[in-house]
Design goal:
Its cofactor is FMN. InterPro entries: Aldolase_TIM, Alpha-hydoxy_acid_DH_FMN, FMN-dep_DH, FMN_HAD, FMN_hydac_DH_AS. It holds the Pfam family FMN_dh. The chain is built from 18 helices and twelve strands. The protein is α/β, with parallel strands linked by helices. The chain has two domains: about 325 residues, TIM Barrel (Alpha-Beta Barrel), CATH 3.20.20.70; about 80 residues, no CATH class. It binds ligand FNR. Ligand FNR binds next to helix 3.
Length: about 425
């Protein structure tokens, strides 16, 4: 209602209210390298297309004269009440889309009361992003490191800074095959930006120190990685560890050792359910496992003590040709029944998409690229508008479908789309 009223009063939105135009304008506002990393997907883009096609296979059947004049979008997740079922997904290297990305997104999240999941590869240390959230709840996303002490250190920092949940992403034990990034060389740049969370971590700095010492003593080879411009800001914290060296010579061993250490430890290719089982005794936070697609994995997640899962294919960035997350949701819900908490992301673009995902059994959804495009066009304000628009459309879809609250958004609201090709 507020969005329409503003329009009637002649107030033009800052960012386009439809995703297609938002995407076009964000592309124009970004460098080709940044665009390839953020908008791109794995392989030939089949998973990204699947994610969208899956929504087209369902049709909403609106209901009339139901008499509900107002809606309540609130939802309970992990023992806590949230104002709406929309969260902002963790997105690493966000600075590709705008300065001080995590802090800008956090301010927008706080202004709209939207929970934000901070990426392990965010561009601001989590403590700084947490400060920008005010009293709005936030979750921390972790990539399981090969260094177990670093896992504990990151969990401890998230707990101390006030996280409401810990999200462990399972689908990126190795990076997906992303031809556009490989062709343009965007990856080192993006990873350089996403290193800030690590270079602000005492355990990580300890590992860098060990590596520098090993190089100095001849026990390890001189680091041989490129330090991109993107990494420079994150690596400034290294200069506090090794004063006087870094700025003299970007090719000095410390920053390069930091990048090399990061590449070695950021994800564990051998991640197993046994690792995940240890989480329950390592944190008091609710645990959410992100990146689940198979019903058996969904079951296993709860068996090892997870409190929730995110059905996700990482926005189509990992396995090309993977099942659409919406299709996976249907199978996962069938396996788990109605009770366990299940979130969904990958392909959500509109309020009607949120409605469809909730009707198929998601308790809440996360937005990935949409809010990044808002950030690219108008910083904090752009993110706020993208979130407000999605919520406004969800609200009116509920209004026109006879759903006074989220409990009323269910399979009865949908049919398989008879018009789907
Ligand atoms: C991501 N995603 C992601 N996920 C995660 O757990 N940790 C991360 O650091 C990142 N980084 C990241 C960077 C970029 C540029 C993108 C686009 C995505 C995945 C993200 O959390 C989410 O699963 C998808 O973005 C959702 O799909 P849509 O909404 O982008 O289609």
């Amino acid at each position: 209602d507020a969005v329409y009223r503003a329009g009637v009063l002649g107030r033009r939105p800052t960012v386009p209210t439809d995703f297609a135009e938002l995407e076009r304008r964000a592309r124009r506002a970004s460098s080709p390298t940044a665009w390839a990393y953020v908008a791109g997907g794995a392989g030939e883009g089949r998973t990204m297309r699947n994610n969208r096609a899956a929504f087209d296979r369902w049709a909403i059947v609106p209901r009339m004269a139901h008499g509900h004049a107002t809606r309540d979008l609130a939802v309970e997740l992990l023992g806590r009440r949230y104002d709406s079922p929309v969260l902002l997904a963790p997105v690493g290297a966000g600075a590709l889309m705008g300065r001080d990305s995590d802090v800008q997104i956090a301010r927008a999240a706080a202004a709209t009361g939207t929970p934000y999941v901070f990426s392990n590869q965010g561009c601001n240390p989590l403590e700084q992003t947490a400060a920008a959230m005010g009293s709005t709840p936030w979750w921390f996303q972790l990539y399981w490191s090969t260094d177990e002490a670093l896992v504990d250190s990151l969990i401890g920092r998230a707990e101390d800074a006030g996280a409401s949940a810990l999200v462990v992403t399972l689908d990126t034990t190795t990076l997906g095959w992303r031809p556009q990034d490989l062709n343009l060389g965007s990856l080192p740049f993006a990873q350089g930006l996403g290193i800030a969370q690590y270079t602000s971590d005492p355990r990580f700095l300890g590992l860098v120190r060990e590596r520098v010492a090993a190089v100095a003593s001849g026990a390890a080879a001189r680091p041989d990685v490129q330090v991109t411009l993107g990494a420079v800001r994150s690596l400034l914290s290294i200069t506090r560890e090794f004063p006087g060296r870094f700025l003299d010579n970007l090719r000095s061993p410390e920053p390069r050792a930091a990048v090399e250490t990061f590449l070695d430890i950021y994800s564990n290719p051998g991640l197993s359910w046994e690792h995940l089982e240890t989480l329950r005794s390592r944190t008091r936070l609710p645990v959410v496992l992100k990146g689940v697609l198979h019903p058996d994995d969904a079951r296993r997640a709860y068996d090892v003590g997870a409190d929730a899962i995110v059905v996700s294919n990482h926005g189509g960035r990992q396995v090309d040709g993977a099942i659409a997350s919406l299709d996976a949701l249907v199978a996962v819900r069938e396996e788990l029944g109605p009770d366990p908490t299940v979130l969904l992301d990958s392909g959500i673009r509109t309020g009607a998409d949120v409605f469809t995902a909730l009707a198929l059994g998601a308790d809440a959804v996360l937005l990935g690229r949409p809010h990044m495009y808002g950030l690219a066009l108008a910083g904090q304000r752009g993110v706020e508008e993208v979130v407000a628009n999605v919520l406004a459309e969800l609200d009116l879809t509920m209004a026109l479908s006879g759903a006074p609250d989220l409990g009323a958004v269910d399979r009865g609201s949908l049919v398989p789309n008879p018009s789907a090709s």
